[in-house]
Write a structure and sequence with these properties.
The protein is α/β, with parallel strands linked by helices. The chain has 16 helices and 15 strands. A seven-stranded mixed beta sheet has the order 4-10-9-8-7-5-6, sandwiched between helices. A four-stranded mixed beta sheet has the order 1-2-3-13. Strands 11-12-15-14 form a four-stranded antiparallel beta sheet. The protein is globular, with a radius of gyration of 22 Å. The protein starts with 21 loop residues before the first helix and ends with a helix. The structure holds pyridoxal-5'-phosphate.
Length: 442
């Protein structure tokens, strides 16, 4: 039993922080008090320029009036409604607006509360879809090395980030992985899509031959891999994955949790790259990060495969207490409206070339070994300190925070994904401050 007698109001002990070095943080906390547009304000009153859109989610910038007002109104009108065998108008309206925004072949939305839930939902739908069509042997799932698909058991099974997997036992059976697409000897300092690496999609043919197509349900990849340190798809790679999956009757799932809602200057990466997946997993930017919500977007072919049997029967035995929650739905509707009315995706597309040039100006600074970018995403990879992986990048993150900018590190890569409302002066401030931090040889 813990000793509760000395628990002060601001005691930091109880909160077991996610994906955080708890002891380091609690010794030197970085506390945020408020946020507006491109900035956080810390509890000690400092302004911090947000270079990560919170956590790749606040695409329209902080404190957007439409979203704030929509939530205020909704909570006083209908605070909660169950989504099982009951409905409320805003969830249906949001599904329609989402489908309108998605590529044309996408016609349905299944609501979740996070990216991890979207991924596990999509994997389950894939397996159940094949079963519903009489191909119940298709149960295998193919992910990719270095992939990140959230933290639930399905997601870490198809994911390929070793630290997220190795502590948690055997995970799902019947999973295989494509090779990752990072080819530093051939592609370093590429602006946008690398030239080399499309051939890595051919590995799918080898995996399919090994297991036989009749056992494989789906392939899931991030169109742009973020959490592993920003890996941009090589030219032709996603197209090849689409070609091979179609040939073998395998569903292709794009995990668009970070690429969805304008990150590349188009609504989704599928639009940007012109490749049509069968399902897309989304979350984060769906509500501008304000309220947890995710959605799996699917084709009519997938949805229709379930709409058989007696019509009083539940077709998919899956869902969450908060699927399509009214407040999240109201936030989602206001967010999509904000993206449209404020021209947020257009600004991302307009800023992307300036972002690219600014980012690549960091080439040549001490310990920088690669720079990668697309849309408003940037990765700056650093030479790890020998025997202490991640330490160099984390040190830079701390220094950057002291100097008033918020970046993120993953391994020894500094990853940035600012709110899509960023302007040129703010790009200069973000990259200029990062340059100062990188100039120190430590
Ligand atoms: C591609 C991808 N999928 C899934 C997730 C998981 O999302 P969540 O943290 O909302 O569960 C993330 C989170 O960063 C992500 O980047």
């Amino acid at each position: 039993m813990s000793d509760r007698t000395n628990t002060a109001p601001n005691d930091l002990r109880a909160f077991w922080m996610p994906f955080t070095a708890n002891r380091q943080f609690k010794n030197a906390p970085r506390m945020l008090a408020s946020a507006d547009k491109m900035h956080y304000t810390t509890t000690d009153g400092r302004q911090i320029l947000d270079g990560v859109a919170g956590l790749w989610c606040v695409n329209a910038g902080h404190n957007q009036p439409r979203i704030v007002e929509a939530i205020r109104q909704q909570v006083g009108e209908l605070d909660y409604a169950p989504a099982f065998q009951m409905g409320h108008p805003k969830a249906f309206e949001l599904a329609n607006r989402l489908v309108d925004m998605a590529p044309q072949h996408i016609e349905h939305a299944f609501f979740t509360n996070s990216g991890s839930e979207s991924v596990d939902t999509a994997l389950k739908i894939a397996i159940a879809y094949h079963r519903a069509r009489g191909e119940g042997t298709r149960t295998r799932l193919i992910g990719r090395e270095r992939g990140y698909h959230g933290v639930n058991f399905g997601g870490i099974s198809v994911g390929g980030i070793v630290t997220n997997r190795k502590h948690f036992g055997t995970m799902l059976g019947g999973v295989d992985h494509l090779p990752h697409t990072h080819l530093p000897d051939l592609n370093s300092y590429t602006k946008g899509q690398p030239e080399h690496g499309a051939h890595l999609a051919d590995e799918l043919e080898r995996i399919v031959a090994l297991h036989d197509p009749s056992t494989i349900a789906a392939v899931i990849v991030e169109p742009v891999a973020g959490s592993t340190g920003v890996l941009i798809p090589p030219k032709g790679y996603l197209e090849k994955l689409r070609e091979i999956t179609t040939k073998h009757g395998i569903l292709l799932i794009f995990d668009e949790v970070i690429t969805g809602f304008g990150r590349l200057g188009a609504p989704f990466a599928s639009d940007y790259y012109g490749v049509k997946p069968d399902m897309m997993t989304t979350a984060k930017g769906l509500t501008n990060g304000v309220i947890p919500m995710g959605a799996v977007l699917t084709t009519a072919e997938i949805y229709d495969a379930f709409m058989t049997g007696p019509d009083n029967m539940i077709e998919l035995f899956h869902g969450y207490t908060y699927s399509g929650n009214p407040i999240a739905s109201a936030a989602g509707l206001a967010t999509l409206e904000t993206y449209k009315e404020e021209g947020i995706f257009e600004n991302a597309a307009e800023m992307a070339p300036y972002w690219e040039e600014a980012l690549h100006s960091l080439k040549g600074l001490p310990n920088v070994i690669d720079i990668r970018n697309t849309g408003l995403i940037g990765g700056v990879e650093l030479q790890p300190i020998e025997g202490a992986p991640t330490k160099r990048a984390f040190g830079k993150f701390l220094k950057a925070y002291e100097k008033g900018i918020f970046v993120r590190t993953t391994g020894d890569t500094i990853a940035m994904s600012p709110p899509l409302i960023i302007n040129k002066e703010q790009i200069d401030q973000l990259i200029g401050t990062l340059a100062e931090v990188l100039k120190d040889e430590d």
